């Protein structure tokens, strides 16, 4: 083989290899507050964005769960994760959005039950909009946990929204979770 042909072959093969989809997708993250609409937008491109009512400041990021944590001026804590469904261990190809949400709930609820003896009641399920809301509740083994989660999925993108506060009543918490999910912007990378 001539040197030119070998270089050409290497070039072609390396380009073909780069076209093979990998499970991991590089993301670009940003967070902005719009004082005109009083909303904070957390973008995770190419997956989508979560739009939260009010002004929220980023705090920490959990590299395991991909949750970005936020606080507001009243020190209320929320977390948002936007990820591809295929990144979760329970995922199976061709799962519907509702199947992903339900499997994620069972997977996470089982974890919290084992870790801290939590009860994990399902509070609301919306199969039309592909989300559910549930609670993590425990006062065992020194834990005092009363948190709420929304898990939703659309076009292969999973949105999780978490809130932990005693400053809001149950109606306010559920309203916040649903508002964030209904205001989401879904990317188109992962279906």
How is the secondary structure organized here?
Blueprint: H1 3-19, E1 28-34, E2 39-45, E3 48-53, E4 57-62, E5 67-71, E6 77-84, H2 97-116, E7 122-126, E8 131-138, E9 145-154, E10 157-164, H3 170-182, E11 185-186
Antiparallel strand pairs: 1-2, 2-3, 3-11, 4-5, 5-6, 6-10, 7-8, 8-9, 9-10
Quaternary state, please?
single chain
Shape-level CATH architecture: 3-Layer(aba) Sandwich
* Text of the CATH class: Alpha Beta
H-E order: HEEEEEEHEEEEHE
Spatial ordering of strands, largest sheet: 4-5-6-10-9-8-7
Q: What distance lies between the first and last C-alpha atoms, to the nearest angstrom?
A: 42 Å
Can you give a write-up of this model?
It is a single chain. The protein has helices at residues 3-19, 97-116, 170-182; strands at residues 28-34, 39-45, 48-53, 57-62, 67-71, 77-84, 122-126, 131-138, 145-154, 157-164, 185-186. The protein has 191 residues and is α+β, with helices and mostly antiparallel strands. The strands form two sheets. A seven-stranded antiparallel β-sheet has the order 4-5-6-10-9-8-7, with helices on both faces. Strands 1-2-3-11 form a four-stranded antiparallel β-sheet. The chain has three helices and eleven strands. Residues 3-22 have low confidence and may be disordered. It is globular, with a radius of gyration of 20 Å. The chain is 26% helix and 38% strand. The termini are far apart. Strand 4 and strand 5 form a beta hairpin. It has one domain (23-186): Protein Transport Mog1p, Chain A.
